[in-house]
From TrEMBL, chain A:
<feature type="transmembrane region" description="Helical">
    <location>
        <begin position="6"/>
        <end position="25"/>
    </location>
</feature>
<feature type="transmembrane region" description="Helical">
    <location>
        <begin position="294"/>
        <end position="313"/>
    </location>
</feature>
<feature type="transmembrane region" description="Helical">
    <location>
        <begin position="200"/>
        <end position="219"/>
    </location>
</feature>
<feature type="transmembrane region" description="Helical">
    <location>
        <begin position="106"/>
        <end position="125"/>
    </location>
</feature>
<dbReference type="InterPro" id="IPR050586">
    <property type="entry name" value="CPA3_Na-H_Antiporter_D"/>
</dbReference>
<keyword id="KW-0472">Membrane</keyword>
<keyword id="KW-1003">Cell membrane</keyword>
<feature type="transmembrane region" description="Helical">
    <location>
        <begin position="160"/>
        <end position="180"/>
    </location>
</feature>
<feature type="transmembrane region" description="Helical">
    <location>
        <begin position="231"/>
        <end position="253"/>
    </location>
</feature>
TrEMBL record, chain B:
<keyword id="KW-1133">Transmembrane helix</keyword>
<dbReference type="InterPro" id="IPR050601">
    <property type="entry name" value="CPA3_antiporter_subunitC"/>
</dbReference>
<feature type="transmembrane region" description="Helical">
    <location>
        <begin position="26"/>
        <end position="48"/>
    </location>
</feature>
<keyword id="KW-0812">Transmembrane</keyword>
<protein>
    <submittedName>
        <fullName>Multicomponent Na+:H+ antiporter subunit C</fullName>
    </submittedName>
</protein>
<dbReference type="Pfam" id="PF00420">
    <property type="entry name" value="Oxidored_q2"/>
</dbReference>
<comment type="similarity">
    <text>Belongs to the CPA3 antiporters (TC 2.A.63) subunit C family.</text>
</comment>
<feature type="transmembrane region" description="Helical">
    <location>
        <begin position="68"/>
        <end position="87"/>
    </location>
</feature>
<keyword id="KW-0472">Membrane</keyword>
Length: 506, 102
């Protein structure tokens, strides 16, 4: 493969974003420029998965500097899988934003394109300072998206979001400085195994991983997520949930495997923190009463599952974690999109203001139910395979507490999904006089009221969620394909010599 | 040593300001923190070799390390833009200080 094509994953969306600003143009042109780069990235990453499926690693030195000096762009099967999933989500969420009309806002398409460019860059780069830069490229447009679109209180959420993320980025940067001071390089290939040999590097890299854990919303540094995500517009929440925290999770997998070389003496910290994340996330959801805030707490809980794979650091554990990561990104976005369709049409996501949707919108109910069962881990969806593999890996590693917690948390997850199901889909629609006093009063004293005219949810709003639920069903039925790819990615993390060889050319 | 003490004082000031309730103070605290981390990066490259990092103007033994300077330059730009954005957020919308409500 011609490796100089790798930077195009970043360049194409960036150039399209620039074109959008310069051209402006009619709505159809903006929509084309919004959808085309993600579609191209989806195709290209499919090809990349095919090329890397046997463990090949492709590296390109940006600017054609020599090995060791240049910033490398590296693609192995793990980054290819992540690229595929993020492009799919960017495409589907953009389609949803077009259906809701979010994309009519000025600069919406531009911001989303820059966001995807940052995500692709962070997934491909082989240099931790460059990773910091790409994470910033990914976050800056999100600040705009959060403050531009969303519910009441989005400015307050925006303040929390920006403050937390700037603080986290500063911590990340301090970690990079400490790594550079102790190891003399920030190049992942040259850092391979450095933290296992030198405790000073381990401290620096530990600070970096701490910063990534805040970005991934691991307990006890998860509070910002539950307060900010529900304030964005449904399309933006789905986009963020699929991309932001998951890039941080990918980076934790990559950095722990590369810099720490899977050092066993720190793994217990991960097992404790991630088990707590599962429990506290799912319990937080119990007290919530709108669809999206329940789903956001579940996201925190699921992040614990995904990261448990890296805390086990066995080949099976990593494989399960990577499979879980891909499965989770798709399912969570599907849930956010199907509840977002209701929220967009009915103007509320509060459980006590909705009801009887299953009767009126059987297709949407099916889409939601499929994704919810997949999240809870029932066959034949991908969640079953993901949870089964992860539990098997934890049993192999004799982490009995984690196994017990995983199974218990699955049950609570299912109960929570049933809570949304019972509140929104079953029963009958509440009559106007039965509605609780409106909780939301605008700044000008206006009261948010729900329409009482029977409305149908447009098919264009249901389709994005349907695509993703169909994807999780397909992954569940043909799990072997993704399991093989995840096993290959896990092997690449267990033995990083192939990566180092490709990056350093020796 | 001077550098280490300066970084320490700036971090202390930044953390103190970040724990205040006004948004503008939080922004100032983050700016201070950002600058202290910039100094940390500078010190990571070593501060005793200060010649030009160009081989025709000296040797590699005495040349300063250009990489941390490039890092700092990037980091300053990013932190600056976000700080300005935060100031806009502080000025727009209603004040969400909860002093009265509690």
């Amino acid at each position: 493969m011609n490796t100089s094509l790798l930077p195009l994953f970043v360049a194409v969306p960036l150039v399209s974003a620039g074109l959008l600003i310069v051209l402006g143009g009619p709505l159809w042109l903006r929509r084309t420029l919004l959808l085309a780069p993600s579609s191209a990235a989806l195709l290209a990453s499919t090809g990349l998965i095919w090329l890397t499926r046997d463990g090949a690693v492709f590296a390109h030195n940006v600017g054609l500097w020599q090995d060791g000096i240049a910033i490398p762009f590296v693609a192995d099967v793990l980054s290819a899988l992540m690229l595929w999933t993020t492009s799919l989500l960017a495409l589907v969420c953009s389609a949803f934003a077009i259906a809701t009309g979010d994309d009519r806002r000025p600069f919406f398409a531009t911001l989303v394109l820059v966001l995807t460019a940052g995500v692709s860059g962070a997934l491909l780069t082989g240099d931790i300072f460059n990773m910091f830069v790409f994470i910033e490229v990914m976050l800056l447009p999100s600040y705009g998206l959060l403050a531009m679109l969303g519910a009441l209180g989005r400015l307050r959420a925006g303040r929390i979001y920006v403050t937390v993320n700037l603080l986290t980025s500063t911590i990340f940067l301090a970690g990079v400085a400490l790594v550079y001071a102790s190891a003399g390089t920030v190049h992942l290939g040259e850092l391979a195994g450095a933290a296992k040999e030198d405790p000073a590097v381990a401290v620096g890299a530990g600070v970096v991983i701490l910063a990534l854990s805040i970005k991934a919303a691991v307990v006890p540094v998860h509070g910002w997520l539950a307060r900010t995500y529900p304030a964005a517009s449904p399309a933006v929440t789905a986009l963020f949930s699929g991309l932001h925290t998951k890039v941080a999770i990918y980076a934790i997998y990559r950095l722990y495997a590369m810099i720490f070389d899977g050092d066993a003496k720190f793994l217990w910290i991960g097992v404790v923190a991630f088990t707590l994340t599962m429990v506290i996330g799912v319990l937080g959801a119990v007290g919530e009463n709108t669809t999206r805030s329940i789903l956001v707490f579940h996201m925190i809980s699921q992040i614990g599952y995904i990261l448990l794979g890296v805390a086990l650091f066995t080949e099976l554990g990593l494989m399960a974690g990577i499979f879980y990561l891909i499965h989770h990104m798709i399912v969570k976005a599907s849930l956010f999109l199907s509840t977002g369709a209701i929220e967009h049409t009915y103007g509320t996501g509060a459980l006590d203001r909705l009801g009887g949707i299953a009767q009126r919108e059987p297709l949407l109910a099916l889409v939601f139910m499929g994704a919810a069962l997949s999240l809870a881990g029932l066959p034949p969806f991908s969640g079953f395979v993901a949870k089964l593999t992860l539990v098997t890996a934890a049993v192999d590693d004799a982490q009995w507490t984690a196994v017990a917690v995983m199974i218990a948390v699955s049950l609570i997850t299912l109960m929570s999904m049933l809570k949304i199901w019972g509140g929104v889909f079953w029963g009958r629609e509440p009559k106007p006089h039965e509605l609780p006093e409106p909780a939301v009063v605008g700044a000008d004293g206006s009261v948010a009221t729900r329409t009482t005219v029977p409305v149908k949810i447009r098919p264009a709003l249901i389709a994005p969620g349907l695509v993703l639920t169909a994807t999780t069903l397909c992954i569940g039925l043909g799990a072997q394909v993704l399991l093989d790819l995840s096993a290959q990615a896990a092997a690449g993390l267990m033995d990083t010599s192939g990566y180092v060889e490709a990056v350093l050319g020796r | 040593m001077t550098l280490a003490i300066t970084i320490g004082i700036m971090v202390a000031g930044g953390v103190y300001l970040m724990l205040q309730r006004g948004m503008v103070r939080i922004v100032l605290g983050l700016v201070l923190l950002g600058h202290s981390v910039n100094l940390l990066i500078m010190s990571a490259g070593g501060v005793f070799r200060r010649d030009l990092p160009l081989l025709q103007f000296g040797t590699a033994l005495t040349a300063g390390d250009p990489l941390p300077q490039a890092f700092v330059l990037t980091a300053i730009v990013i932190a600056f833009s976000i700080a300005i954005y935060m100031l806009t957020l502080a000025a727009s919308g209603s004040d969400d200080d909860t002093e009265d409500a509690s």
